[in-house]
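Q: Here's a chain of 187 amino acids. Please give me its 3D structure as C-alpha cells.
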Amino acid sequence: MKTTMPLLLLSGVLAAVAGCQQAENTFTTMSTNTNLTPSTVQMTARTDEEWRKQLTPEQYRVLRQAGTERAFSPGYEEFKKQGVGTYVCGGCGVELFSSKEKFDSHCGWPSFYDPANAKNVIAREDHSLGSVRTEVICAQCGGHLGHVFKGEGFKTPTDLRYCINGVSLKFVPAEATATEKLKSSQP
C-alpha cells in the first residue's frame, strides 16, 4: 500500500504534464528573448523566504520551482469566466497577456495565442521529463509560467498555444486598468 500512493501521485503528475505537452509540436525559436540570462531578466530582488511569504504554497511551487498545477484547477475555471482585461504575473505584477489573445483550448489550463507584451515573456528550451519543450518565463521575476506549443491546429492567428498555469497569473479587469491609468495621470 505504501508504494501504491507514490506511484499514483507520479502517474497523476505525468498525466497532467502530458496534457500540456505535444513534443512533436514544440519549437524553440519564437522571439529574440529565447535565452534566460541575467541581462534579459530584471530579477525582482526577493529572497526565497520573501517569495514564500508573498506567494501561496501552490504559487510558490509553480512560479519558483517550475511546477505544474493540475488540469482543470479552480484557476482555469476562473479564467474561463473572466472578461476583458490584462493578465499580469502572479509574482511581480508585470503585464504578460491580454484577454484579446485568450482562447479555450480545452486542455485544462489558461491558453493564449500571443503574449500582450512580448518583452515581459521569455521562452527557453526545457529539457525536463525526457523531451524538449519551450518553457515560458516572466522576464521581470524569472517565474515559471508554463509552456508554449506550435502547430496544434487551433484556428488562431499565430498557431501558438501559451499553456499557462492559472496560479501564475492575476487578472486585472479593463475597468480597473482604466481607473489606475486615470489616477496616475492626475496631478
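Q: Can you summarize the key feature?
A: Helices lie at 4-19, 48-54, 57-64, 74-81, 174-185.
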